[in-house]
Write the structure tokens for this entry.
Amino acid sequence: MNQVNKMNQNNPILTGLTTLVLALLLTACAATPSVTDPLPSWTTGASKQRIINFVADVTDSDGLSYVPANERIATFDNDGTLWSEKPTYFQLLFILRQVTLMAADHPEWSTTQPFQAVLENDWASLKAAGAAGWEKLAMATQAGMTTEEFRLLVNDWVANAKHPTSGKPYTQMVYQPMLELIDYLKANEFKVFIVSGGGIEFMRAWTESVYGIPPDQVVGSSIETRFEVRDGQNVIVREPKMHFYNDKGGKPVAINRFIGQRPILAVGNSDGDFEMLQWTSSGEGARLGILVHHTDAEREWAYDRDSLEGRLNRGLDEAGQNGWLVVDMANDWKVIYPYENSY
Amino acid sequence: MNQVNKMNQNNPILTGLTTLVLALLLTACAATPSVTDPLPSWTTGASKQRIINFVADVTDSDGLSYVPANERIATFDNDGTLWSEKPTYFQLLFILRQVTLMAADHPEWSTTQPFQAVLENDWASLKAAGAAGWEKLAMATQAGMTTEEFRLLVNDWVANAKHPTSGKPYTQMVYQPMLELIDYLKANEFKVFIVSGGGIEFMRAWTESVYGIPPDQVVGSSIETRFEVRDGQNVIVREPKMHFYNDKGGKPVAINRFIGQRPILAVGNSDGDFEMLQWTSSGEGARLGILVHHTDAEREWAYDRDSLEGRLNRGLDEAGQNGWLVVDMANDWKVIYPYENSY
């Protein structure tokens, strides 16, 4: 026993201080075990418990369901899953706004469908123009420019446009319980991706600031692009031609192409997410598929089998046999939008 | 002054111990400042210094060249940049091996070109078959199976195939200085991507274990894939049809599509990387483009303007005016392969 140890043994103040030092060193670097609820906007109940149990299972390195951090891939649909999609998909409302903003430079639009319908608020004609009409509007407003120019347009929309019924900026109409779920997953070393039918560059302009999800973790539909040197500047130009629809069976294909691993958790709200949940939940080991069911006509919207946006029919029929969790917005969520928490 | 402070003041042992406690607490959580060379396999000189200066500049939060961590995107070509590409691209050697392994199930190949040429080691006929011949071989050996089945074939090649001249497994023929550069960038909060002309699923089978780069940070060429339910199993099937060639002007397009941000650092070795370096280095702020010049006929291979693989012609001519760093393998690298460090 050396001199210092002898001194400690004989001096109660030193012994106590040494214990304190050790205790401080042991706790200073470890995260304080949190007793805070990770999902405060979710009501206590089966849905919340199932999510928490799943995360606990896959992160328990001694458990049978353990999944190493590098395989903890989670994919979220966007429209109707992370933010609202009524009265119609927000990107369509962006396109309508662009038509009105660009109309002064396109006098021919006042007599050309489907542009005329948009400018005259003629919803019957717009509806009659159908998907082909929407594609014309989409290409006229979102292509024929560089990726950087497009990003600025989306930024302007995020900053200045308001949702027609709530009057809120669109990026405030995201679901508070989902923001908490994303953060909870990230805190448990999940890598969280968006896999949406929405435009990939439309989403990337704001997903990092709104959801904390970086551009390379956003997968969406896309149009063709090409690299060119224009007036001495290197640019990427958006061309008016579809490249990929990221919907239905396209979602597993895009997940494989962009992410390269099968997710262990997938969250959607419509039959467009069916194959993503199928692909996710049929892998080996612990898996969780979640469908958000829009049941809250008062605080959000209530729709499922007959809705144009976010139609959920087959998903409701087969969720049970597939073991998917169906989240009931009206009952499972205390709060829908973040601004409900502001006073 | 309270009792404890009085005691400390009067007791030199306690005072010293308190100082020690504070010092321990202050240093225990911070990473010990490392004086270790982050790039030990790079010779001391201008190339190494320029890389270190660049990383120091973009990570200095008080400096004019500071780049926030979420914008520190680095892209690396693979063939000839991270691993060797002689006598030809390693994926072509994988394809040749697959032809020989599959030949027993394809008796017709013994009389069908270009398969016959492979089976008979008839290099003249194989060369005559050209790119169209290689595409036939590629599709016959890499498509018509599920992504999971393909991954197992690549894993088998990684585990069992040997390079024809070195006799080493292919995944040992990676460049030690590049492994160090990747680690150095990751330690400085760069997000590191591979952007290669190689097959995306061919690379993803082994990039995480060899380079520490996860599947979703690997961008490459791809064939078409489709999702299907086959015998009750959900699978993704590889179809014998090209989807995307990730080379030349395709690289900025793929970077924009997969990563969604312009890199601040790009590393390549051939004219196929020219546009990637152009796109990277012409952005605002601090940027670095690097070309690896294969100058070491003794330890690796020496080739540039006239090589079929990794042809570097325009890049050499224009590196200077573009401000790109040209790494001279013979002089800048102390070691080429990791196994040179083993005794």
